[in-house]
Amino acid sequence: MTADDVIQAWDQADPAAIHPTRHVSEAAYWESGQVQADLLATVIPAGAKVMDFGCGDGRVAFPMAGRDYDVTAVDASQRMLARFAGAADLTTVQADADGLASHLGRRRMDAVYSLAVLVHHSWADCLHIIGKLRAATKLGGILVLDWPVSETPSEADSWIGVTTWSEQQQTEACARIGLEPVDSGLPWGVYRAVKVGG
Ligand SMILES: C[S@@+](CC[C@H](N)C(=O)[O-])C[C@H]1O[C@@H](n2cnc3c(N)ncnc32)[C@H](O)[C@@H]1O
Asked: From ligand 1's centre to the CA of 137, what distance in Å?
């Protein structure tokens, strides 16, 4: 599937597909976002300018904004963003990874996180997106990427499938893109934005 196929599928998707807790209850869904925001806050400095890339309907972006982060919530799906209507304390942007540069201009984020987004893309598209997220982040800034490793890596075979990576693929990608892994104990990869070759 191309990145556009994935984006198109999410635009048409039932929002219940965003996270398994939504099949439990709305309260469980929003609570899961609070829990994940607590985890993000252990690695993202207070008051940071943060981008939530592929924010969906704000499960994590809302609790991050409630913690006094300056949140820009980005999603390619207009329907997902329409569910943010009326949210005063964060900025929403409709864009895919290629649209970020024109939105940001010369501004860079202190931190970028992307949860349950990269996993649905092919290896090539995922690398392309991570390169754009790195470009949107200040040198020394933090990226939190839901970018799973497996001993039997494989690519998603549908918009809701999961792509996994070998350690070696990720190590090579980090060197090429300018990401230095940070030890965090979080369930996602945490990286510092560094110069390529630096
Ligand atoms: C599974 S939902 C996750 C939403 C949110 N990150 C969360 O964890 O609750 C995936 C979201 O990413 C968006 N998305 C997927 N691929 C994207 C891309 N290449 N660029 C921008 N948004 C994308 C979809 O529109 C959808 O809203």
From this structure: 19
The tens-digit pLDDT sequence of the chain (198 residues) is 899 999 999 999 998 999 999 999 999 999 999 999 999 999 999 999 999 999 999 999 999 999 989 999 999 999 999 987 667 789 999 999 999 999 999 999 999 999 999 999 999 999 999 999 999 999 999 999 999 999 999 999 999 999 999 999 999 999 999 999 999 999 999 999 999 976
Residue 76 has which token pair?
């390619």
Q: Which amino acid is at 157?
A: D
- Tell me, in angstroms, the distance from the centre of ligand 1 to residue 55's CA: 6
Could you tell me the distance, in angstroms and rounded to a whole number, from the CA of residue 18 to the centre of ligand 1?
A: 8
Could you give the CA distance from residue 152 to residue 101 in angstroms, rounded to a whole number?
34
Beta strands in 54-104 (DSSP E): 70-75, 91-94
SS percent in the chain: helix, strand, coil, step 5: 40, 20, 40
Domain spans, the chain:
3-193
Query: Probe ligand 1: pick from 29, 34, 75, 145, max atoms within 8 Å of CB?
Result: 75
Whole-structure pTM over 0.90, yes or no?
A: yes
Query: In CATH, which superfamily holds the domain spanning 3-193?
Result: Vaccinia Virus protein VP39 (3.40.50.150)
Contact 174, 130 (CB under 8 A): no
Given the structure tokens 């329409």, which residue do they identify?
82
